[in-house]
From TrEMBL:
Protein name: Pyruvate, phosphate dikinase
Residue ranges of every copy of the PEP-utilising enzyme C-terminal domain listed in the record: 541-888
PANTHER family: PHOSPHOENOLPYRUVATE DIKINASE-RELATED, PYRUVATE, PHOSPHATE DIKINASE 1, CHLOROPLASTIC
Source organism phylogeny: Bacteria, Bacillati, Actinomycetota, Actinomycetes, Streptosporangiales
Keyword Zinc: no
Species annotation: Nocardiopsis alba
GO molecular function: ATP binding; kinase activity; metal ion binding; pyruvate, phosphate dikinase activity
Family that this chain belongs to: Belongs to the PEP-utilizing enzyme family.
Binding-site residues, substrate: 579, 634, 766, 787-790
Keywords assigned: ATP-binding, Kinase, Magnesium, Metal-binding, Nucleotide-binding, Pyruvate, Transferase
Active site residues per record: 454, 853
EC number: 2.7.9.1
Residue ranges constituting the Pyruvate phosphate dikinase AMP/ATP-binding domain according to the UniProt record: 55-284, 294-343
Amino acid sequence: AKYVYTFAEGNKDMKDLLGGKGANLAEMTNLGLPVPPGFTITTEACRHYLDHGSMPDGLDEQIETHLVRLEKEMGRGLGRPDDPLLVSVRSGARFSMPGMMETVLNIGLNDESVLGLAERSGDERFAWDSYRRLIQMFGKTVQDIDGDLFEEAIEEAKKAKGVTDDLHLDTDDLRRLVDRFKEIVADRTGGPFPTDPREQMIRAVRAVFESWNAPRAALYRRQERIPADLGTAVNICSMVFGNLGMDSGTGVAFTRDPATGRTGVYGDYLQNAQGEDVVAGVRNTVPLTDLERIDAHSHEELMGIMNTLENHYRDLCDIEFTIERGKLWMLQTRVGKRTAAAAFRIADQLVEQGMITLDEAVQRVTGDQLAQLMFPRFDEEATSGDDVHPLGRGMNASPGAAVGKAVFDSYTAVKWSRSGERVILCRRETNPDDLEGMIAAEGILTSRGGKTSHAAVVARGMGKTCVCGAEELDIDTKNRRMTAPGGEVVEEGDVISIDGTSGLVYLGEVPVVDSPVVRYFEGEIDPASDQADDLVRSVDRMMHYVDAARRMYVRANADTPEDAARARRMGAQGIGLCRTEHMFLGDRRPLVERLILADTPEEQRESLSALLPLQREDFGGILEAMDGLPVTVRLLDPPLHEFLPDITELSVRVAVAEARGEDHENDLRVLQAVHRLHEQNPMLGLRGVRLGLVVPGLFTMQVRAIAEAAVDRIRAGGRPRPEIMIPLVGTVQELEIIKDDAQRVLREVGEEAGLELELPVGTMIELPRAALTAGQIAENAEFFSFGTNDLTQTVWGFSRDDVEASFFSAYLEKGVFGVSPFESLDVDGVGRLVRIAAEEGRAARPDIKLGVCGEHGGDPASVHFFHKVGLDYVSCSPFRVPVARLEAGRAAG
Ligand code: ADP
Ligand code: MG
Ligand code: MG
């Protein structure tokens, strides 16, 4: 097999084999840009090495052949004493994993070649600086020596000399530092620093292979959902030197601003420096524009190259470059990462410039990015002022902007929030005991743990703002205070603001503003007016495009006229799930209680007829808000006991009344009923269609209310389109009984009104048995709506409320799944049932309508799946409607 490619042999589409860095180095080489010559060892070689613990047959020979060829081209031998060729050994996987894997520079230096390098370059200091860097990087990366030991040695050398800048260490200092570094290596490894250049190179290659499996790389992959078995490529690249004096240097740049997406070049430059000095912050960089003053010629060439790259990649590129004595070299490029706002702006600009089509543009923005733009945010003016500065930064675990008083334990969070305070729960890390506090808090801040930590997982599940792993904040829960690196102390009760989108934490109350994108969706900002900025305009253009492109309809889950109206403004084309449970709470509770406790059919009828007009009014408002669009009303679903008083409270009341000899007959009766109806697993108990079957008249009352509301709307000149949905069906027999009742009621109401009422009756598919017998069920259902929340619970045997708070973070940490199946549909398991039910439902009833109304309806990856299996619509919460529209359009593209 061919395991090694020279840069000239590859291209940008070979990322799987050559990794991102290798593929793009090849692309730049073939574009004729100044790339130092070199070659790439494939990811296939890496996978073999990781699987077998040894290099594949022929790899060593291929590397040697390419090295010899490189030596010839450069006219120098690797590490040759009089005129050494030096190379870097660089990792580079398919997906960029910034800072996760390793690179070693200056391979080929030893006690002899360092003299040759000094001689040839005429710069002794440079030669010794390069040598100490090699030992440092090789020691750390290949020999696993604690990097701090080298850093400390440098600090000592600087202190001994009384300087603070490493540029002030002279040749002798660096020579001594090299000796000191060699001692560290000998001390830590029990052997001398390897002096053979080829051995140095091969060992570095193996170390890069192995760095694929380093724990931090594995963790990063899990968090970013990068497959674990891809392996990394290794690039061997001849060295160019940015540390050859002040006419040399190194820098990074972007062809546009990756933060805002605005046009114009951005970057940093550092004179007399090598490689990672720029990012490592060893010294202060200067903005790229200063390069024009420092080296006008290189600056001009660089601007030209960046322009070439943008036109070639047709996207924002980021680059690494080095200038060696006035000569510019390109060391890396890739399509650059960017913020959500930048993604929209850039895609739109590129369309404007005629570089890409709108179709390509919508493929370059995601629903997640759109969702980010829709969260309320801290007022930019307030956070960019001179007087506000962040206390610290953590990971952006769950987006949003939250303000509240800092509390350091769950108990206080609950207590204070009950008395009306807004609080931010600050913990080192959270565990299931913190759950109540997390619920009570506006936001959650932790100093430990990543995006799969308990805090992050639970917060995302609750849609609550969370910043996690803010390691620089010292959270001292015992003394109820937190100390920032700048020395500021936050005591319990001090107000802080946390930004779950940026990960920043501020002292004090930062004002929160509505996102302009939401105001646009709400119709408050006209995209054509000058109130709208370019972000709103780009979102508007994309939304028009995806609405025309998508096949699936997007509906919303809404159960009040206000929500329905908002959903409609957000672009919903109907309601996919109108829950009716909240219509039975509040001041209607006594009516429901009476219904459940009724001793005689008369009593029961009485409560039902009291509920009927109320329900009719509920539905009327919603049908009016959604006039002309379908409204799927789900008949009552939750367990009955949820409508009854708390068992403990009631017991106490009965006991007290008894002791006082007061009349308590009614309470006693209720108590008995509550006992009778109490369930161990209410979510698997008497609910949904089961309730409809055992409480006579309940579902028919609801159907009548819906039908009468429709009649009222028709009489008022409206176009109501209600649909009746029966929850938790497991077998067609359940459905048949309820459906017959429903149709009888519909006929009755129709006759009473003298109208032809044809309302579709359908069912939810949320139990595995329903999915597996979908063919039979479809005979009696005009539509299916997949309730993927319950379906996920029942397919996995998970009780969501229990599992998310207890062991899901451990599961994510261990990689059992990459993302919670409640966040993104489990395509292999739950998705398979959806597919089966969709196919068999369609086979039995070709014109059956198929939709989904679980939270997955607003999840980007899940929307793509639903498109693929041919569903007619997705339904999600009003705020997710734009996200679903965008993703449904992208899926169809
Ligand atoms: P990362 O993926 O962490 O950016 P790189 O392989 O890009 O690692 O290398 C780290 C640094 O060393 C970068 O700044 C890069 O530009 C620089 N570098 C890599 N190879 C060379 C080389 N052959 N000559 C000069 N600098 C190099
Ligand atoms: Mg790099
Ligand atoms: Mg359900």
